[in-house]
């Protein structure tokens, strides 16, 4: 089916594309028509005919058992499948003949039947009651096989007739499977001769799918074409988070402006105020711009970026390191390799240890960046506001402080009227409104106590 889809794609390009679209494609470095012609070749037609001539995916659904090879391909296989599909009626007739020859001592409320069990063969099934040992002695050709519990008890026996059926028909279902698998293996071997052509075609289809997906998302969500520049700057007007905006009723966009000054952005603000989302949305805009996509913003000028470094407090389930140790490794890599063209994201770095140690690590990291002649573009969110009050930061034109604005009419930390505005503005925030956030999360705490204090 995938090969047929590839051939269908090629038919589209063979028919041609509109003159308007052709003119548009001249301005982008995407030769879709040329790639389609070189990637989807005559070999795919041969492979398609080969697969379609062997495989019938609907057959198994129609017949009710595992079978995919087309009828008419192998006479021996067709004969086996015909016998298997007529087996229930045949066994019903054989069972009736056998029951007629049984002694009266074997009569049951429900007549025994001969059944076919995969990988075991043919068995005579008696219901509800097992044949007594005394009767079994007189039935020389009967041999107990096993019993089965369920809605009704079943007891299975080998008999002379079931042994004859084993010799005559054998494990017919698995004979069919073995023959079909042999045919499929031969088909796969033939297809494997064209792996390079298939790989090239699939890679083209993947690239086309990616381009179409980016185009559809851009149109549906009003993305704009970014401007890439060699200058190490970043200007985003009303930038949005590509995923977050799809999950909320109203998304508040924010601007970003990083030039030669103010390249180290220290972002403070309460919990729940949107700091992490803002940092991630900037990184996504930069990344999308570099892969040739439109971006979620009203406008964007993106300087060429060599790396995007992240220390976002992520925890890998496959690593034995703690979240804090992972952060340290990520920031260490950032400090060693970041250049003026890099984008560095730090989300609450230093929070995983004692406050004093965290402040020292955060302050040292910021100091390191300020020593650059032209620092990387840094977006750093933190609740460690002591770095402002205790002079941990140097006086530098590279540092710019921003905060996520909050509407707090009474100026209280536990005010129920607090409204998060999700808007990035210049300044610093010294309050986290943690108790208010706890209430929003469903933690209805009336009082918190500590030695000698209560709130």
TrEMBL record:
Keywords, comma-separated and alphabetical: ATP-binding, Chromosome, DNA-binding, Meiosis, Nucleotide-binding, Nucleus
Coiled-coil annotated residue ranges, if any: none
Compartments in which it is found: Chromosome; Nucleus
GO biological process, one term: chiasma assembly
InterPro entries referenced in this protein's UniProt entry, alphabetically: DNA_mismatch_repair_MutS_C, MutS
Main location: nucleus
Keyword DNA-binding: yes
PROSITE patterns cross-referenced by the UniProt entry: DNA_MISMATCH_REPAIR_2
One GO term describing the cellular component: chromosome
Residues of the DNA mismatch repair proteins mutS family domain: 342-358
Source superkingdom: Eukaryota
Presence of keyword Nucleus: yes
Pfam families given in the database record: MutS_V (PF00488)
Molecular-function GO terms, alphabetical: ATP binding; ATP-dependent DNA damage sensor activity; mismatched DNA binding
Similarity-based family: Belongs to the DNA mismatch repair MutS family.
Record protein name field: DNA mismatch repair protein MSH5
UniProt lineage: Eukaryota, Viridiplantae, Streptophyta, Embryophyta, Tracheophyta
């Amino acid at each position: 089916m995938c090969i047929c889809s590839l051939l269908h794609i090629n038919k589209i390009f063979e028919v041609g594309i509109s003159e308007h679209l052709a003119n548009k494609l001249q301005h982008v470095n995407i030769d879709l028509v040329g790639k389609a012609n070189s990637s989807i070749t005559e070999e795919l037609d041969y492979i398609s005919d080969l697969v379609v001539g062997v495989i019938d995916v609907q057959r198994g659904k129609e017949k009710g058992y595992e079978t995919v090879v087309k009828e008419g391909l192998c006479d021996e296989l067709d004969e086996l499948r015909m016998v298997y599909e007529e087996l229930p009626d045949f066994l019903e007739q054989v069972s009736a003949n056998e029951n007629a020859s049984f002694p009266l001592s074997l009569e049951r409320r429900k007549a025994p039947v001969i059944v076919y069990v995969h990988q075991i063969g043919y068995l005579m099934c008696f219901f509800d009651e097992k044949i007594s040992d005394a009767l079994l002695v007189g039935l020389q050709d009967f041999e107990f096989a096993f019993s089965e519990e369920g809605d009704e008890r079943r007891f299975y026996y080998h008999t002379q007739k079931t042994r004859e059926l084993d010799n005559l028909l054998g494990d017919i279902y698995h004979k069919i499977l073995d023959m079909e698998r042999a045919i499929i293996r031969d088909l796969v071997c033939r297809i494997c001769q064209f792996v390079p052509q298939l790989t090239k075609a699939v890679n083209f289809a993947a690239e086309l799918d990616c381009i179409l997906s980016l185009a559809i998302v851009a149109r549906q969500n009003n993305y704009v074409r970014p401007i890439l520049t060699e200058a190490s700057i970043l200007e985003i007007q009303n930038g949005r988070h590509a995923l977050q905006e799809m999950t909320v009723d109203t998304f508040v966009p924010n601007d970003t402006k990083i030039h030669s000054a103010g390249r180290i952005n220290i972002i403070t603000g309460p919990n729940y105020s949107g700091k992490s989302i803002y940092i991630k949305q900037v990184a996504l805009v930069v990344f999308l711009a570099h892969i040739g996509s439109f971006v979620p913003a009203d406008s964007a000028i993106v300087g060429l970026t060599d790396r995007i470094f992240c220390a976002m407090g992520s925890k890998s389930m496959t690593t034995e390191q703690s979240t804090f140790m992972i952060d340290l490794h990520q920031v260490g890599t950032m400090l060693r390799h970041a250049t003026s063209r890099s984008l560095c994201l730090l989300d609450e770095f230093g929070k995983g240890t004692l406050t004093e140690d965290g402040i020292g690590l955060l302050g040292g990291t910021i100091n390191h960046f300020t020593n650059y002649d032209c620092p990387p573009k840094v977006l750093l969110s933190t609740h460690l506001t002591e770095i402002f009050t205790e002079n941990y930061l140097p006086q530098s034109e590279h540092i710019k402080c921003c905060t996520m604005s909050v509407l707090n009419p009474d100026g209280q930390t536990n005010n129920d009227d607090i409204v998060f505005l999700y808007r990035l503005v210049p300044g610093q925030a010294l309050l986290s409104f943690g108790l208010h956030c706890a209430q929003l999360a469903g933690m209805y705490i009336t009082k918190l106590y500590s030695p000698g204090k209560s709130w």
